[in-house]
Amino acid sequence: MKISEASRVSGVSARSLRHYEDEGLIASGRCSNGFRDYCQSTIDRVFVIRSLRESGLPVRLIREVLPHLTDEPDAGTDMVCAEFLHEVQSYRDRLAARIAVLSDQQAALDTYLREARRTDP
Fold this sequence. Notes:
CATH topology of the largest domain: Multidrug-efflux Transporter Regulator, Chain: A, Domain 2
CATH architecture of the largest domain: Orthogonal Bundle
Number of domains: 2
Structural class: mainly alpha
Number of helices: 5
Largest sheet: 2 strands, antiparallel
Shape: elongated
Strand content: under 5%
């Protein structure tokens, strides 16, 4: 299917499909006129990528684990998955730390606004 149909079916923009291809996450065939041609297995892969991206994972991590999520299992998959899970946990922990800092900043601003409103004539 052409990129416009692949975009519609997968729910991601044509620009995102091109980006995923540039990043090596997906591959497309080419028609005789040079247009990209996407098969159903590529669209299925896009669904996985989209789900991982919506979880906030960076492309770097997705690129590492994607073959093990979408291709046939092979030797070493358990090790890769364990490393991936460690990376995901580390990413999640960094995210939680950032959220904590932002929550503290929000609380400080809330306090400031409460105090400012009390003294406002």
